[in-house]
């Protein structure tokens, strides 16, 4: 966490591994005093904290039982097969997240002295909004730090990460700080989220009358135009109160999970359930998920019609829309469509999709036919995974005896498992040489479905399948809504779900499987397996389809050690700072 501070033009801060200040020409420097004269310069501190957030699609599924990469040098493939060490920084968020935290600490220390607008009410609202963003972003960065680096030390203590809430002067600060307890870190996240919700509206919308001004801002102004200037629709996709509630729900679920259940951690499942319930109530209840939400990435009319920062109804927070883009398709289309076929879903994941009647394929009531394995299945299988003779590409032949480049290991860009990725891609993109046609897309940051699944998991653990606690809905209600939306179990009155509703353990298994399916290839599985303390070493399986012959095989073994339930503190930091105690097992 050694840092040097460089303030150059509109690039506000840059943190590296050396404390000393560089010596460029003096006119290149902009000191902190410039914040008080230039509000855009001040806002840059907050914007840098956005820039350092981890990406939503990080391909970490490639290190789980859900997928492998056809590129053997892929960092996640190497990580899953034995190369994960404390010195391997592929999953570390330590430096970027602490950089983001230091950006907002500097802003929070000085924003009350900044003149953002001449009008006092506008100035106060603008300052409120940016302070709220800063507190929220600090909480989110701390969540990622906990997810990636918290864990048990060799002496059995459940530790988090150092808590930094003040700006650290590069030349005078003591950077050798110990890790705080996991519980202390969770409580710091909640304090920051409380502050974010105090300063921010639930969502950014333009208003037309004083009666629409949220209560916490009514004493600042009664003029709609002034409110809109500071908190209006112009600021959509910036951190808001609903995002703060979502980060609280993520944090509470992590804290209650088996990997972090510890006498020193008072977090409970009911806290996690109630945090997620607030978002479900805001959305309108269990049955308010959009009907097309599970195909959010390919809802073409919806995506192409996005403007003015508006969200599709499935999305709480997203990145900016990209236009005429074909990057994901270039990376993942099968080679016959001129793609590189990078992400290969596993047969493990394919088998996790139930039949359309809702029963797992191993259940005697499922009517699963291993000689025709892809028929009468959960519709999400077709939407998420490309398999042999897929209805969207009937010419696709994935078997090892295929005469096409799509067959197993036919070429470097061919599949290793007999499957290709469908989810996150738009199938109306063309990669034909000389006629490449990209399409519009966005990358989500938080989806409503994630929050619903968070509730289902926590509510089942807290109160059982049909218990509601202080809420008006249960885990059963939420899972029923999600499966109904997907078209699963609707033809037999959700017979399998009704079975699970009688058994908490069976419902737990179903909920975890629904989470696996709904959130596949979105960067959750790697961390879910760890917080559940589940098996990390289930081998990635493939299916070789040649004509009517289906031959299962092992595509890639996993080589995780038991201590890898928790990620490491980066070796470089432990080496530099003797107060940083490493998680058990990591060297």
TrEMBL record:
GO cellular component: cell outer membrane
Keyword annotations from UniProtKB, A to Z: Cell outer membrane, Membrane, Signal
Compartment list: Cell outer membrane
Sequence ranges assigned to domain SusD-like N-terminal in this UniProt record: 74-206
Major location category of this protein: membrane
Domain RagB/SusD: 314-586
Matches recorded under Pfam families: SusD-like_3, SusD_RagB
PROSITE patterns associated with the record: PROKAR_LIPOPROTEIN
Annotated family: Belongs to the SusD family.
Stated name of the protein: Putative outer membrane starch-binding protein
